Amino acid sequence: MQRRQFIRLTGGGVVLGATAGLSACDTSLPAEALQAWSPPADGPDVRHWLLAHAILAPHSHNLQSWRVDLSVPDQITLFIDLDRLLPETDPFSRQMMMSQGTFLELLDMAARHKGLRADIELFPEGAFGPKTLDGRPTARVRLAPDASIQSEPLFQQIFLRRTNREAYEDRPPQAVALTSIEKSVEPHPIRVGFVGTDQPGLLRRHRAIAMDAWRIEMETSRTILESYKVLRIGPKEIAQHRDGIAVNAPLLRAIDALGLFDRTVAPAPDSMAVTSQVKDFNAKLATTPAFFFMVTEGNDRATQVTAGRAYARAQLVATAHGLSMHPLQQALQEYPEQAEPYADIHRLLEAPSPRFTVQMWSRLGYAPAVGHAPRRRLDAFILPGRG
């Protein structure tokens, strides 16, 4: 997920923090990068209005890897953008498939708000294999007016939703909120659960696994560099790309402008750049009051998409209750260095792999408000000549 960049000046040199906790939700981001977060006006093609809501869905690294074909009336065909993947941290594209699911869930909510039934057919030309993706569609959505369709109450939370990676308050979520989150996922065959301050020993074990997995990602050069590739520094880059990891901090902008930040070189594992970030994020984990998790039986592509839909619902319910969620995907990632944390969290959640998969594991709690993440223009998601 996205990380926050920190900078330290020592001995006349520049030490750049590895990307721990880098936020794509800086309130000082340029206005044009946040235009998508203003509710859209009605237009001649209702699909544009629906898509304006769907593109606000959460997505790993804020890559927004959605492409749509609108060439058939009353139909939206969704594709994954194969140029927007995470081959190092998400080698089998499980997170990418979940992000396709978050999009479909918000699209469905928007359709319901307009009195439309969205018939979603997953993988109409066949599902992807377990390791790689290709150019076939993820889903075909057929829209039709339906007087029996009722608006989804969670629709009202779409423009309020954020992913908050900052420090959380040291107080547990209210029981009514946890019950509501659990109920929101009931339409999907997914086991959900929570760990909080009423289980102090278990909570410490969750925190320890998260800390270990975070350290591993910070110390693995290629995974840090994958984040660097989508780092957007300063108003010009943020406005140009409107995606990825956006940072508008004046000091980093100045250092980058002087050519002192080489985004092609990872810091050494024992450098202050890494150790300071591990320490900073460990402090956030140490006060995290609760964790939320989702477990599925099986891990095929349809299950991954369904898990994304379920997470979108859970986060919107959390938003309605004033709670923040921050996915901790590091221990769920399937590159070799994470094998031990991966096994540890699956064992802790009684989800023995490969029969079961922990699809989502996130921090949960109350936190000060943060700004929205950048989003690209709507037309950037529509395949050329198919709008």
- Compute the number of helices: 10
Strand line-up of the largest beta sheet: 3-4-6-5
Oligomer: single chain
Strand content: 15-25%
How far apart the termini lie comes to 31 Å
Class derived from helix and strand content: alpha+beta
Give the number of DSSP strands: 12
Q: Main sheet, how many strands, which sense, barrel?
A: 4 strands, antiparallel
Helix content: 25-40%
Rounded to an integer in angstroms, the radius of gyration calculated over CA atoms is: 20 Å
**Shape by Cα distribution:** globular
What are the low-pLDDT stretches, counting only 5+ consecutive residues below 50? 1-27
What is the H-and-E element order? EEHEEHEEHEHHEHEHHEHEHE
What average pLDDT do the residues reach? 92
Notes on the protein architecture:
The protein is built from 10 helices and 12 strands. The N terminus is likely disordered. It has a 4-stranded antiparallel sheet with strand order 3-4-6-5, with helices on one face. Strands 7-10-12-11 form a 4-stranded antiparallel sheet. Strands 1-2 form a two-stranded antiparallel sheet. By secondary structure, it is an alpha+beta fold. Helix 6 links the parallel strand 8 and strand 9. It is globular, with a radius of gyration of 20 Å. Helix content is 33%, strand content 17%. The two termini are 31 Å apart.
